[in-house]
Amino acid sequence: ERNAAAAAARAAAGEHLPLLGLTFAVKDNLHVAGMATTLNCPVVALMPQESALAITRLEAAGAVLIGKNTMDQFATGLNGTRSPDPLCRNAIDPAFIPGGSSSGSAVAVAAGIVSFSLGSDTGGSGRVPAACNGIVGMKPTVGLVSTRGAVYNSRLLDCIPIFAANVEDASEILALIAGYDPLDPWSRRDADDIQIAPVPAPSMRLAIPRSDQMRFFG
User: Fold this and answer.
1) Among residues 115, 119, 55, 156, which one has the least CA distance to residue 98?
2) CB of 43 within 8 A of CB of 62?
3) d(C-alpha 191, C-alpha 189), whole Å
4) Does 218 have pLDDT greater than 80?
5) Residues tagged active-site
6) For residues 80 and 72, is the Cβ–Cβ distance under 8 A?
């Protein structure tokens, strides 16, 4: 409530806030000032004094952070169930895995709890849980979004993906968090110049094989 009230007050004062009132949550390997970062292993909890830059930029745009999301412990795994109980459940069918390691970030969006969320992606963690829950997982080019304030799995490969209901929303969020960060040694110096807006697909022709071509050869 405090975060929402602060954003509303800024808007009332005339500040332009493109994400005013939109709620989001973040994977628990991204630092939020004053909130424990546990990587789903409470005994290694860290208490950061500064939020990840991507989170700071979203809050500057008026988005309201409501909390942290569960994850595969230490962001190692793609099924979303490598974590202590209670396990995160697939938002479409709880009999299926939610996908990982950003399981909570995907489920929070798919279940309508938040408008969008952030995760981490080393080898699929921003896309597998999105696919499992029927939403969009957008993986940015490594170095496009600063990873300052993230607890790394792989410093060479990690990036901060966006979970959203559709590509347009994910692209809008990406445009707000992308950019060169001189304090991140892996940040791309050309990050501010990279095209982010989705490019409309050209018209396409779809071909359907004839039934006599649909033979199965075992």
Assistant:
1) 119
2) no
3) 6
4) no
5) 27, 101, 125
6) yes
